[in-house]
Amino acid sequence: MYTSQRGSSSSRHHRHHANGNAGSTKNGSARPGARSQTLLINSKIRHIKKKDGEPLWRNDIQYDFLKALFYDETRVFTNSYDGSPNHTYSEIYIDAMARSSKSSRVLREKLLGDRQAGLNIAMVCLLVNIGRMNTTLNFFPEMRAQLRTYHPIPSLQTYSDPTAYKQLQDAPRLKSILKGACEDRPEPSTLDQLLLQPRLPRTNPINLVFILATYARRVTDLFFVEPFEFYDFIMNTSVSSESRAKAFLWLMWVYLESDLSPEQLRANPFGYGQEGGMKIPSFMTLSPEDLEKENVDTDPEKEFAERMIQERKRMY
Predict the structure, then answer these.
(1) Per-block mean pLDDT, blocks of 10 residues, the chain (316 long)
(2) What angle in degrees, to the nearest 10, is found between the helix axes of 205-214 and 115-130?
């Protein structure tokens, strides 16, 4: 494994990406009120697309990245709702989901009372939040609706109670929960509005991801070193999951907790960034051998997927 450097001969348009190379980015501006838009417009991210019944494997959802992100125990985030300090990223993300007016009482209790279930739901929510997963997907076999496709997620459903697989909800419900977190109270809806917020944290983590995804090109220009860019967080499988998660947390802390001064950027608790601390920490490019060790589906997960595929066929 080695650290990628600026000026690498790799082209921005010829990297390995999950599910293929992404298309070109348009300008990074967004319409007013675009805070809850994912990346259906001016985006170079690709939605996960599979046939009905096909599982979403670890590599499809980039499970190792999501796990490294949501299981990180660095307590440096502030809850934007009650001002309480010393939270992990997963805690403030799940708390924002639970506070959404679109979260049912049962789901709220599950998010806050069952850590594993909360983490699993948060992982899928981030995929919706950043635009990798659209609202045509559902995750339990008995649901059938026009323009919806069923996909088990073995890495998140295999090890839970056999009756608990519905806890993941479906993508449209998750999108509604995320939108609620952005609309229940006044929140900035553009990057400029975000930077003008007088208090820290500037917003909740869900709204922040929507904004950064909408303004991905501008964020890339500000904080990434070529040949990498914002969507490499979730799309670039040639870069280690651990280094992507660390850089993502670095960026979250910058926008939520810092005044963006050089002094605070250099003091980022998620590492000293590139170019004198002004850019995200280096991504670690994987050797072919290390690449094979990431996002490895287990035998129980493969068995679960096969059972769910057959269950879907039996029902429909």
Answers:
(1) 39 38 36 36 71 92 98 98 98 98 93 93 95 77 65 88 62 91 97 97 98 97 97 96 98 98 98 98 97 97 91 76
(2) 20
